[in-house]
Amino acid sequence: MGRLVLLRHGESQWNLENRFTGWVDVPLSQRGMQEAKNAGDKLRGFTFDRAFTSVLVRANETLRIVLEAIGQTTIPIEKDKALNERMYGELQGLNKAETAKKYGDEQVKIWRRSFDVRPPGGESLKDTAERVLPYYARHIKPYVLKGETILIAAHGNSLRALVMELERLSREQVLELNIPTGAPLLYEFDQNGNVVSHRYL
């Protein structure tokens, strides 16, 4: 039985400051480092065959802290920008509350939570899914089908795109999906690659 653990990075400095982060390389906050350590504690019973992460430092640092905590620092790790956070374009670096005052709460909610509406100069969740899902199918799913245990450290929206696929969520359902920072989400698969269970650890 293949197992896949999805882990959104710990709180970043811009999460703390309530800013749109996107592809800007922002480090973990002190709380984010602790969240990563806590995730490591929850994953102590797992033996991972390999790990995947984005190229952004907050996901890389989360993965490093987790693997150190569970004593598995020598497993193969593949980094790829396909797993990067959604690119927020002109909103990157802006405070979310100030952006809502400028454009209106409803418009900002549409940019943040709709499936196929892009923020100015940025990506929609649909755009994000169009890079995440082919990468998953080519580079990660074959290992799951072999029965391996895989860890992905990535981001709120890249993981939302993947969860939408794994759980067969509708466009409407994915709008309300929120993946918390530092909370490992375990999926177990049968030999055909179908999800048989999923839960937060």
UniProtKB/TrEMBL annotation:
A Gene Ontology MF term for this entry? phosphoglycerate mutase activity
Q: Which Gene3D superfamilies match?
A: Phosphoglycerate mutase-like
Report the record's Gene Ontology biological process terms.
gluconeogenesis; glycolytic process
Q: Does the keyword Magnesium apply?
A: no
Q: Which UniProt keywords apply?
A: Gluconeogenesis, Glycolysis, Isomerase
Question: Which InterPro entries does the entry mention?
Answer: His_Pase_superF_clade-1, His_PPase_superfam, PG/BPGM_mutase_AS, Phosphogly_mut1
Identify the residues that bind substrate.
8-15, 21-22, 58, 85-88, 96, 112-113, 156-157
Q: Where is the active site?
A: 9 (tele-phosphohistidine intermediate), 85 (proton donor/acceptor)
User: Which pathway features in its UniProt record?
Assistant: Carbohydrate degradation; glycolysis; pyruvate from D-glyceraldehyde 3-phosphate: step 3/5
Catalytic reaction list:
(2R)-2-phosphoglycerate = (2R)-3-phosphoglycerate
Q: What is the designated name of this protein? A: 2,3-bisphosphoglycerate-dependent phosphoglycerate mutase
The organism is Nitrospira moscoviensis
Instruction: Name the gene.
Output: gpmA
